[in-house]
Write a structure and sequence with these properties.
The protein is an alpha+beta fold. Helix content is 22%, strand content 35%. The strands form three sheets. Strands 6, 9, 10, 11, 12 and 13 form a six-stranded antiparallel β-sheet that branches. Strands 1, 2, 3, 4 and 5 form a five-stranded antiparallel β-sheet that branches.
């Protein structure tokens, strides 16, 4: 499994289209990782549009896949401003008890009468993330400060103890057949601790929650040195 980071050209019309439509972004990325005649297998890549741009103001996209990309397959060469060498992800070295910084853009939701509803309440969003941890082999870090309101002053977004919730957004994508996909998304950032190495590695490989074709579910982590 490898992680890639690319920089898009905001002057390119097709890049702006993909930035506004995550379903189209996924389709373009699939072209880079698979030949045109090969359908992009479900779960074969996870990706996320990062909230910050690079120093030149170019949007950045993080992509995780076991496949090797060929950026020359993208029909419009101007689409890609820069690609960085991929990094091998050493998931096999992660152990229970290890602590990480993490970032996750996901679809916190609940099912009501057979339909998924996005959770817009911040407490409900945090509870969703904590519940996911029980299934996916992690727990959120304990607060480092006894004063809850210290965190509320940390911009941007709404802050919890050692976990920040920000960039709430309703994503809309348009399939080639004309159907519209709409999904609620939230960006979580903070600290977590792996509790079950097998489940945690599987989570890192396969992502969390719904909407992966819309750029959700990629859990990226950086180990914290003891």
């Amino acid at each position: 499994m490898r992680l890639y980071r690319i920089h898009l050209n905001p002057r390119c019309k097709e890049a702006r289209r993909d930035l506004a439509d995550p379903y189209q972004m996924h389709a373009t990325l699939c072209r880079a990782f698979f030949p045109e005649e090969t359908r992009c297998p479900p779960g074969s890549l996870l990706w996320r549009l990062e909230p910050e741009t690079d120093r030149e103001g170019r949007p950045r996209v993080l992509i995780q896949s076991s496949e090797m990309p060929d950026w020359s397959r993208i029909p419009v060469p101007e689409w890609l401003a820069q690609d960085e060498p991929g990094k091998t992800l050493a998931f096999d070295t992660f152990e229970a008890g290890q602590t990480f910084r993490f970032r996750l853009r996901a679809n916190p939701c609940r099912t009501v009468h057979g339909r998924r509803q996005g959770l817009i309440n911040r407490d409900a969003q945090m509870e969703w993330l904590q519940r996911k941890g029980e299934r996916h082999g992690y727990v959120l870090a304990e607060p480092k400060s006894a004063d809850y309101f210290d965190f509320l002053s940390q911009p941007p977004g709404y802050a919890y103890s050692d976990c920040r919730v920000a960039y709430e957004q309703m994503l809309r994508g348009h399939q080639h057949g004309g159907n519209t996909i709409q999904i609620f998304s939230v960006l979580f950032e903070g600290h977590l601790t792996a509790t079950d190495s097998t489940r945690f590695r599987s989570t890192l490989e396969n992502g969390i929650g719904h909407g992966k074709v819309m750029g959700l579910g990629l859990l990226s982590v950086v180990p914290i040195a003891k």
